[in-house]
Design a protein that fits this description.
- The complex is a heterodimer of chains A (403) and B (389).
- Chain A is α/β, with parallel strands linked by helices.
- Chain A is built from 14 helices and 5 strands.
- Chain A has helices at residues 2-28, 30-50, 70-81, 94-102, 116-122, 137-163, 168-175, 192-223, 240-269, 278-302, 306-323, 335-341, 345-358, 367-402; strands spanning 59-65, 85-90, 108-112, 126-133, 179-185.
- In chain A, helix 10 packs antiparallel against helix 13.
- The radius of gyration of chain A is 30 Å and the shape is elongated.
- Chain B has 2 domains: 2-44 and 183-384, no CATH class; 51-169, 3-Layer(aba) Sandwich (abc type-2 transporter like fold), CATH 3.40.1710.
- Chain B has a 4-stranded mixed β-sheet with strand order 2-1-3-4, sandwiched between helices.
- Classes of the chains: A alpha/beta (403), B alpha/beta (389).
Chain lengths: 403, 389
């Protein structure tokens, strides 16, 4: 019994020693410090700032009015008065308008043909041609949808005049017998930042931890006398489990602060949606942070030089964001990429966070994601222990040759 | 002539380094290939198809079932759930099972027949904008079709011709021309930014890495000796190999998307070649400059990577630069990818003359020449710095 207690105490001493040692390394290494402190602190602020304006208003367009009628002028005025489009130029013909697009002065062309008003007066269908520059999806939507809405409204007005109704109510019913109310939920303004930023925040957490842990491990390899991850001249580093636990404690401490900052402080600073309660966020972030740390520890063993972890993790960050289903819907992601996405904690961390933070989901509603995150945490813990055990043997084997 | 032999000598030396260090092979060839395949397969549909949506049908009439069938038949929507009430539907949305749901209250069809303007509601989540806006578009169509069906029945009963009905239902038609991307495909607009963006990230990272490694393994002196201490010759010889490999990869990528996948473009082959040359030169120039600013392997790589990742947002292909705050608009000039993308969309995608985006072209040339300012620092670092892990 006594020996057991002694061994336990010895184990804990080692864990705490490694914890302290790791923390000192983090603070002293400017590269690691940059990824573990500067990136989680500064990057979210920068991204929030980029997307802070949320949506695009007053997209510049050019009008080619060949109709020169009061109806065409009304259409142009209506478009100009809409929030999303600004009629910036008038052009004589399509070629002139095209040169304005070419010089990036406008994002679209409204062409109103000569017979526009005539056809309406005759009771025929008139046409407005809209030419969209497709290089910017948001601008295309603004240009096209504004034309659709304004043409519809103008058309409804024409219909009402022709209908010869007696009351306003009759006008409304004849214009739209079936009323449709569309309600955008959880991000009512359709803001780009409110949509993408929560995902970016969670991804930053995983990437910063993986990069920081990987760089620290790379530095350790280069500093150690034997050129291995585990030093042979430090008696405290004598078991894989204590190393994994000691390191996890250190990064867990940093990760906890970063997670709290990313999930609570940043959205509040920039007034992004925040519907989640503190405890729901806690139950979601706990497995995510743990899984990310063990994921980082596992990855850190696989790379020999610390620069390589940077090349690897930076490269995967954009595909990772894609696989979370925030910019491309999850239901449209091909099955094999969905399978690949299960490797990374960020996939489920981001999904759970969006549901809690932006959609106000409760713990029970994100239970599947939480379960997977715990499974990932357990699997990566096991893998981290395995790879460190392997490192242990490698270091021992390397010892004679190093001397 | 002497310079040329020196450049060739250094280039051959560099080729040996690229061959031996597997990192180069991975970052220059394997990762880009994976990346191209990732984006092109991920976005193969172009637009989001068959998004799962739900319905709350409390009317249970032929009309409501007709609306639901119409919704199910739309390109982007697939009705997968029927909920008893709104709360159930909202819960399913929060659980991520549906992107949208249609609510048809009781009495819709009877009110429609009586001409009392019933109201149906459509709820969609904008936490995934592609899904939300596609779902909304489908629903808008369903709504106007629902209204049109009523008008159409009345008009044809009165004996109107099809042309009259068309004009009466929609007096003004919008004829949309989606230049160079008629399907509105996200594959065409996203792949063509992300792949070049990450390639430029690798260019910047690897060019800083290549110089850092010379310092780390203390081979910089030998490298400079081969150029007789002439740093310009040394740099040219070293990076000509990088440039050629990257150019090869980029041409392969362009060939794949434009000739195999048939991405639309209005610009000619020359516009692609010109852009690729500028892209490689600017990307490498930026990396060398980053190293010259901070002649340390890890700092220059960190700066290059953070800057390059940021450039994917700052190039303004998803959220336009014009919508950002003024300081950010000014800052966007400092990102090579921004200029790449501006030239790409003007000359390659839309086929406009390059003179209209000449300032972006000049900017990329400027990025190519940036290393000029730090040449002496790079030389000094190679000769005098000691690598500290």
């Amino acid at each position: 019994m006594c020996t057991f207690l002694n061994r336990l105490r010895e184990h804990f001493t080692d864990v705490l020693y490694i914890f302290r040692h790791e923390l000192v390394k983090v603070v002293k290494d400017e590269g690691v410090l940059m990824f573990l402190v500067v990136v989680p602190l500064g990057y979210p602020l920068l991204y929030s700032w980029i997307y802070n304006n949320e949506s695009l208003h007053e997209t510049p367009v050019v009008v080619v009015d060949q109709s020169h009628s009061s109806l065409s002028r009304q259409f142009i005025n209506d478009c100009n008065a809409s929030p999303d489009v600004d009629v910036k130029y008038y052009a004589e013909d399509l070629d002139e308008a095209r040169s304005l697009v070419s010089r990036q002065l406008v994002r679209g062309i409204y062409l109103i043909p000569t017979d526009f008003a005539t056809r309406v007066s005759r009771g025929e269908q008139a046409t407005v041609s809209v030419y969209c520059d497709m290089s910017l999806m948001l601008a295309y939507k603004a240009v096209y949808q504004t034309a659709m809405v304004e043409a519809g409204r103008l058309g409804a007005g024409i219909n009402i005049k022709k209908a010869g109704n007696y009351t306003k109510r009759e006008d409304a019913i004849s214009a739209q017998p079936l009323a449709v109310d569309d309600v955008a939920m959880f991000n009512p303004s359709g803001g780009y930042g409110s949509c993408v930023l929560p995902a970016v925040l969670m991804l930053i957490l995983q990437q910063a931890l993986a990069l920081g842990i990987g760089m620290a491990a790379g530095t350790a390899r280069e500093r150690h006398r034997n050129g291995q991850l585990i030093p042979d001249d430090d008696p405290h580093y004598r078991g894989a489990y204590r190393i994994v636990w000691g390191k996890a404690l250190c990064y867990g401490m940093i990760g906890a602060v970063a997670a709290a900052y990313l999930s609570m402080a940043v959205p509040a600073m920039f007034s992004f949606p925040q519907l989640g309660t503190g405890w729901t966020l806690f139950w979601m972030l706990l497995p995510y942070t743990i899984a990310s740390i063990f994921f980082g520890l596992t990855v850190s063993c696989l790379v020999r030089y610390r620069e390589n972890v940077m090349l690897l993790m930076v490269f995967v960050s954009v595909p990772l964001l894609f696989m979370t289903g925030v910019s491309w819907p999850q239901s449209s992601i091909p099955g094999y990429w969905q399978g690949v996405s299960w490797i990374f904690p960020s996939t489920f961390g981001v999904r759970a966070f969006i549901r809690v933070n932006s959609m106000g989901a409760s713990v029970s509603q994100i239970l599947p994601e939480i379960r997977i995150l715990w499974i990932q945490a357990a699997v990566y813990l096991g893998m981290a222990c395995l790879v460190y055990r392997h490192q242990f043997f490698v270091s021992k084997a390397a010892k004679p040759s190093a001397d | 002539m002497r310079y040329l032999t020196q450049i060739l000598d250094i280039a051959l030396r560099e080729l040996g380094i690229l061959w031996k260090n597997r990192i180069y092979g991975f970052c220059m060839i394997v990762f880009p290939v994976v990346l191209v395949l990732f984006f092109t397969t991920m976005l193969d549909d172009g637009v989001a198809l068959d998004l799962p949506v739900g319905v709350v049908d409390q009317d249970n009439s032929a009309t409501s079932r007709g609306l639901i069938r119409n919704l199910d038949a739309m390109q982007s929507s697939r009705v997968v759930y029927r909920f008893a009430n709104i709360t159930e539907a909202r819960n399913a949305m929060q659980e991520g099972k549906v992107y949208a749901y249609l609510y048809i209250p009781e009495g819709t069809s009877s009110k429609l027949l009586a001409g009392r303007q019933p109201k149906i509601s459509y709820y969609y989540t904008m936490t995934c904008m592609t899904a939300g806006s596609m779902a909304m578009k489908d629903m808008k169509t369903i709504g106007s079709l629902g209204s049109a069906a009523v008008g159409q029945a009345t008009l044809s009963a009165k004996g109107a011709t099809p042309a009259q009905i068309k004009a009466a239902l929609q007096p003004i038609n919008v004829d949309a021309h989606m230049i160079a991307n008629p399907q509105g495909s996200y594959n065409y607009s996203l792949t063509t930014v992300f792949v070049p963006g990450i390639l430029m990230l690798f260019m910047a990272l690897l060019s800083a890495y290549a110089l850092g490694m010379e310092m780390k393994f203390d081979t910089g002196k030998e490298w400079l000796a081969r150029a007789d201490g002439n740093i310009v010759v040394a740099i040219l010889g070293k990076y000509i190999v990088h440039a050629l490999v990257f150019l090869l990869v980029i041409f392969l990528y362009q060939w794949y998307i434009f000739y195999v996948l048939d991405f639309p473009r209005l610009g000619g082959v020359w516009s692609i070649v010109r852009l690729s040359l500028l892209q490689v030169a600017g990307g490498l120039g930026f990396g060398i400059f980053a190293f010259g600013l901070m002649p340390s392997l890890r700092m220059s790589m960190s700066i290059s990577s953070l800057w390059s990742v940021l450039s994917i947002s700052m190039c303004g292909s998803a959220f336009p630069v014009a919508g950002m705050d003024a300081p950010l608009q000014a800052m966007s000039w400092l990102f090579p990818l921004r200029h790449y993308w501006m030239i790409y969309q003007a000359t390659v995608l839309n086929g406009f003359p390059v003179i209209d985006v000449w300032f972006h072209l000049v900017a990329l040339v400027a990025f190519t020449l940036l290393p000029w300012f730090v040449l002496s620092k790079v030389k000094n670092a190679m000769l005098n710095y000691v690598y500290i892990p």
